[in-house]
Design a protein that fits this description.
- There is one protein chain.
- The protein has 5 helices and 10 strands.
- Strands 1, 3, 4, 5, 6, 9 and 10 form a 7-stranded antiparallel sheet that branches. Strands 2-8-7 form a 3-stranded antiparallel sheet, with helices on one face.
- Helix 3 packs across helix 5.
- By secondary structure, the protein is of the alpha+beta class.
Length: 212
């Protein structure tokens, strides 16, 4: 008995292979950038409290606040020793800016990425190196319980960075990406006090412009 001849696959290819492009885009702050990392000490205290259970609520002395230590702990320091901005903050800002131009945010999540210059020495957060010198910003805030608190945070009043963006070229052109990052800087912002903050309307911090 003869074996049947294999049928020819006449299906057409409808899924294109991924085509990514990459560019280094220089930005400069047009407003101060303020950083507030969730410190290693705070994580350790939270872990200790959870491990000790209900006993942690009573009989524990409250430590005095070391303001300089909290200031330093609020920085994202890379494994190489330089300070950086979390790379996801730029990506999130670009995705958020898609709402302004009517592009689907769900597609942007799969199409635009920001490459890291390094990683946080404590928690591994991907970082983009920031160029500039911070100063201490003393802020008066209210905790979720309504209690007033004084916090020291690093503030860069003059700063620049080179953001390495990788994108799906079937979704965006190079000019689209530059324009989207520019809108992120002018209308969304990054860091503490940005206009697009979930907690408030922000302080107008974290704004930037595209230089090249």
């Amino acid at each position: 008995m003869k074996k049947p001849k294999p049928t020819e696959d006449k299906r057409s290819v409808v899924i294109e292979p991924p085509k990514f492009e990459m560019a280094d885009i220089t930005i400069a702050g047009t407003a101060p950038y303020v950083q507030n990392k969730f410190s290693q000490k705070a994580r350790d205290q939270m872990k200790a409290k959870q491990e000790s259970g209900s006993r942690s609520k009573k009989g524990t002395a409250r430590e005095g606040k070391d303001f300089m230590a909290t200031y330093e702990a609020a920085k994202h320091v890379s494994r190489q020793g330089w300070v950086g901005i979390p790379a996801p903050s730029f990506r999130n800002a670009m995705i958020s800016a898609c709402r302004i131009v009517g592009f689907k945010m769900t597609l942007a999540k799969l199409s635009v990425f920001v490459e890291a210059d390094g990683y946080d020495a404590d928690d591994g957060t991907p970082l983009v190196k920031i160029v500039g010198e911070p100063r201490i910003h003393e802020g008066l805030v209210r905790n979720q319980t309504g209690v007033a608190d004084v916090r020291w945070r690093p503030m860069w009043e003059e700063w620049t960075a080179v953001v390495r963006v990788r994108w799906d070229s079937t979704q965006f052109s190079a000019q689209d990406v530059v324009n989207l990052l520019a809108r992120a800087g002018a209308q969304v912002g990054i860091g503490e006090g940005r206009p697009d903050s979930k907690a408030s309307n922000g302080m107008g911090w974290g704004m930037f412009e595209v230089r090249a």
